[in-house]
Amino acid sequence: FMQKELLPAMDQKRLSNAAKELLAVLNRNEWIQVPHYRNSFSVGEAKWVTSPIEKYVHRISDKTWLNIVRTPVEKMSSHRWTETKSPYIEEATPMQFASSMGRQAKKQPVRFARLSLQFPNDCYASYIAHVLRAQRQSTEEIPCADVELTSELIRRFSQMDNDEVLGVIADIIQERATEPWPEDILQTIKAIALRPLKKEGDSNSSDEQEKSAHSLYNHVLNRTQGQAIRAITSLLFENHAHFNIYRDAITTLSAVSEPYILLALVDCATACYNIDPKYAIDLFKKLVAADVQVMISHYTWQLICRDFQNDPVFYRQSLINGIESGVVDLGKHTAS
User: With b meaning 16 or more CB within 10 Å and e meaning fewer, what string describes 96-112?
Assistant: First the structure.
């Protein structure tokens, strides 16, 4: 809870990749609210931190929302709190306004999808990300924007060089893979997956995390390229014709040395197996040979069982390598 408040306040250029990933996770989970604060001097009442409009966010007009979004970040107060008699502390910052917008956008996804097309290109990126998150899934009571309108949003906002926004775009396609997306949107997901990988900073990971193959899934779920590969995997499971679009990208990505990319591709190989079994098995063996940690994938046993008789020596040695890797969870997984 405290991290959701503190991380946005820090210089974003100085945040490690692990911190940026954590912030993405916190922003995606609305149940993680900004923290209660207790004044250590006066031992005052603990309160939630919200934007000044939170109490009547449902009454905010489109014009007012646009005025908020168009206000330059530097002109807003920086973590300036206003004490009230309510259980809240009000804070007029882009982060708090974006959170309020996100909560209302979930109730009115189509309205905010249309409104976001009027957002300035240089606005605070989380305004856009929150509107896009509201388009990930429809319910019977609250339908999100249809394919046509959502495609408009993706076409515009995929031009941004912002990992949070691009990651949410990939999540939309992953969760709505059954829908008939236009060719250019499918190509956009391909382009996101093929973006140059950013250099890793100090991840500040614990020794336990470093020795856990499962920790790679944090990167798959929270790094832009990992999210895009998950979208491609879902699209391939739903429509085999998409294989012609993504085959070359999958092959290119399989030559990358980044472990989480290789792990994400194991799931992709499973989707490919129903389309081109030989390609899928060759891909899987290439990934295992590159980094044995990918065998932590949920789909490992499916692929091994389908091909074990064709190359028992390779698979037996790979399993032994996993057991002897020194990575505890991988050792248990491959030994079982």
Answer: bbbbbbbbbbbeebbbb
Question: Per DSSP, what are the bridge partners of residue 88?
Answer: 48
The answer to whether the CB of 189 falls within 8 A of the CB of 232 is: yes
Q: How far apart are CA 172 and CA 244, in angstroms?
A: 21
CB pairs under 8 A, 24+ apart, for 184-190?
A: 184/151, 184/155, 185/151, 185/154, 185/155, 186/235, 186/242, 186/245, 187/245, 188/154, 188/155, 188/158, 189/228, 189/231, 189/232, 189/235, 190/228, 190/232, 190/245, 190/246, 190/249
- Using pLDDT thresholds of 50, 70 and 90, give the confidence band for residue 126: very high
Q: What is the dihedral of CA 226, 270, 213, 336, to 10 degrees?
A: 170
Contact status, residue 73 vs residue 114, Cβ threshold 8 Å: no
2-45 per-position pLDDT tens digit: 665 666 666 666 667 777 767 676 666 655 555 544 444 444 55
Q: Pseudo-torsion of CA 165, 12, 224, 106, nearest 10°?
A: -40
Alpha-carbon distance of 78 to 73, in angstroms, equals 9
Q: In degrees, to the nearest 5, what angle opens at C-alpha 5 toward C-alphas 9 and 124?
A: 55
Question: Quick one: tokens of 333?
Answer: 């997984």
Mode of pairing for the β-strands spanning 88-91 and 81-83: antiparallel
> In this structure, are residues 173 and 185 in contact, taking their beta carbons and an 8 Å threshold?
yes
The confidence score (pLDDT) of residue 202 equals 42
In whole angstroms, what is the distance from residue 177 CA to residue 95 CA? Answer: 30
- Would you state the pLDDT for residue 39? 45
Instruction: Write the single-letter amino acid at 10.
Output: M
Which 3 state secondary structure label does DSSP give 301? helix
Residue of 202, 217, 163, 222 lying closest to 21 (CA atoms): 222
Q: Lowest-pLDDT range, 93-102, 121-130, 146-155? A: 93-102
